[in-house]
Design a protein that fits this description.
Two copies of one chain form a homodimer. With 135 residues, chain A is mainly alpha-helical. Chain A has one domain: Winged helix-like DNA-binding domain superfamily/Winged helix DNA-binding domain (Arc Repressor Mutant, subunit A, Orthogonal Bundle). Chain A is built from seven helices and two strands, in the order H-H-H-E-E-H-H-H-H. In chain A, strands 1-2 form a two-stranded antiparallel ribbon. In chain A, a hairpin with a 5-residue loop joins strand 1 and strand 2. In chain A, helix 1 packs across helix 3, helix 1 crosses helix 4 and helix 2 crosses helix 3. The first copy, chain A, is elongated, with a radius of gyration of 18 Å. At the A-B interface, helix 1, helix 5, helix 6 and helix 7 of A face helix 1, helix 5, helix 6 and helix 7 of B. The structure holds a DNA duplex (30 and 30 nucleotides).
DNA sequence: CTCAAATGATACCACTAAGGTATCATTTGT
DNA sequence: ACAAATGATACCTTAGTGGTATCATTTGAG
């Protein structure tokens, strides 16, 4: 299982790079060179980050992306939400016709508890934290 | 996302039923009637539980399954392991050629920490706990 | 002015795992 | 003898993930 999807992972890597190399615009090609990640995928990821308000973009030759949000304000949980939707550890099973059985609801309660622990942690972690811990 | 797979969920339901209705053998048909779950799927699940040592089985007419392990010894994490393999929140991304980038390893560390919180909790919960909390 | 280099938008593709079904063989109480 | 049960196993369908391709548009540099 994976708490983080590939999108989220790549996004974090890209953002860390951009935050620690403040030299104007960074293009997909640059990131490809630096991070060795599949280029078209990364491109899509950056576009998403731009739409979500983390990056500004400049089109045309010598164009690229630029980080426009301070790393301390970029929470891991928000990035996950952008790429993976709402975080939940007990997704679909709730919606279905299951859980009519009272006896198993404690199971759901357990899962819900764990979900809260995890989301609390995710809310606390920012890009700035990740950069700090990486040094 | 789902911490528990359907197998695990069904298994828990079945085991709770069998633990709280100690009346000899329980057949797939019985469980189908009681829990309203897809019968052939449940059957496969019970066979797996049998192979894993939680149930004994009797073939033939009037046959069925019987719980052979005390609920207090049945840990949620073990059931999950049976149906879902080793529990992990940061699976595949580790194995790949990623994570060469030092800067993002703090991300992995975060995930690992959360994974430890969750597994600690899962280890602590037994079928007996779930039954107790359901009353 | 032209062209290459970049993003915007979007459609498409392949693979895998999860959830579920079907079938045939075997056993056994009635 | 037969129906009712499990054992074993193969198959199917679907959705999500990871990834590619394409066309349009913009723009700095020669």
């Amino acid at each position: 299982m994976n708490l983080l999807s590939r999108d989220t992972d790549y996004a974090v890597r890209a953002l860390i790079y951009m935050a620690t190399h403040e030299q104007g615009l960074v293009s997909t090609a640059d990131l490809d060179r630096e991070l060795k990640l599949p280029r078209p995928f990364m491109r899509k990821t950056l576009q998403t980050l731009q739409k979500a308000g983390y990056l500004s973009s400049v089109k045309g030759n010598r164009g690229g992306f630029k980080l426009v949000m301070p790393p301390a304000k970029i929470r891991l949980i928000d990035l996950m939400q952008v790429f993976q939707g709402n975080i939940s550890l007990g997704d679909c099973l709730f919606k279905k016709k299951l859980c009519t059985c009272v006896a198993t609801c404690p199971l759901r309660r357990e899962v819900k508890d764990m979900e809260e622990m995890v989301t609390a942690r995710l809310k606390a972690v920012t890009l700035a934290d990740l950069i700090r811990n990486g040094k």
